[in-house]
Amino acid sequence: MLIQSIYRRLMRTYMLAWAVLLLGLVVTGWVGWFSYQHARELDAARFHRLVGQASDALRDRLDRYQLALLNLADFAASRPAISPAEWGFRVRLLWPEKNYPGLLEFGFAETSWYRNLQKPHDTEALAAASLVTESNSLIPVFSWVAPPSAFDGVNPSFFSDPQNVEAARQAMRTGVPAYSYRRELSTEIAGTPARGFTIFAPIFDAGLAQALTRLAPGAEEEAQALRATHARGVVFGSLEPNLLLENLFGTARREVEFDLFSGFPLSEETWLNARGTSPPSLSPEFKAYLRTNALVQIHGQPWVLAFHTTPLFEQESSRLRPYSTLATGLLLSLLVAALLGLGTAPNPAGTAKSVEPANQADASMATR
């Protein structure tokens, strides 16, 4: 009973202060939640903007490297044979160490059936050959490899790897560049074999363009057959992704990082920019403030960029703003409630002074 009495007295005395405190806490919570949502939206917008910028920059850089290979393919297609002096001039003209960082090997190869034909432009003889014949292999004509390398040119096994042969055939079938998955390159970086991917650009003889003009629009099967008939070989270029990305984005800390995968499923085998034993973004223990997977189509081949924020992003983010809002609102609510409580609290000194004259009056009346 005593406790309930004290509680009722306190509630009656400080009712206004309690009401203001409760109202302040409700308003603070609402403002804090709104601030959290707004800060999350701002950070998400900035994160997706950085993701888009990085994806576009990577796609543009790959297009630049691809254009260099297509120019080399046009050069090879314009000549029935290339001399070593001409090839050396093209290498010096490209200057891959300066103009194309990460391009560690390139060259061109012809198919065996094309090289063995006595009349390369005999349509009937070309039609009798097939790109899918197992005996039809890629034969290197010229190649260049960035030192240090244990090979004079690319590794000879490069042209017998089924993955590379299939990518080359795909380029010759479709008429557009094709990309391989991660493979071991013919050069070394810091004493270990470099790993990267290879771009294959097709080479056709001069008769293809005229033959394609006679086809009806949308006749893709006939177009593929014509490309198989007139295909001469491929120009290829192999890139080490980490060198490419360092030149593109620099080596300073960035607000977003990403793991680059050359397709599905996302695994160590398809991880292109390897920086360790396994991709950090695939680890169950890996935590990031924001993360997303961006799908980039590279000539029909889906590449996946697994983006995530870094501590540098979080330093500049708005994620702490809601906490400061909550702390400020809580302190203000407590301060206002305390001031109101002090203003409505009973004054013991005043009460004693008012009681003392009343007692004196009662005493005088009793004496009479």
Keywords:
368 residues, alpha+beta, three-stranded antiparallel β-sheet
In words, what does this structure look like?
Helix content is 52%, strand content 19%. The chain has helices at 2-13, 15-77, 84-94, 96-99, 112-116, 123-128, 162-174, 207-213, 220-230, 241-249, 311-315, 321-344, 348-367; strands at 103-111, 138-145, 178-179, 183-189, 192-204, 231-239, 256-261, 291-298, 301-309. Strands 1, 2, 3, 4, 5 and 6 form a 6-stranded antiparallel beta sheet that branches. A 3-stranded antiparallel beta sheet has the order 7-9-8. The longest helix is centred in the first third of the chain and has 63 residues, at 15-77. It is elongated.
Brief sketch in words of this structure:
With 368 residues, this protein is an alpha+beta fold.
Distance between the termini: 41 Å
The percent range for helix content is 40-55%
> What's the gyration radius in Å?
38 Å
Shape label: elongated
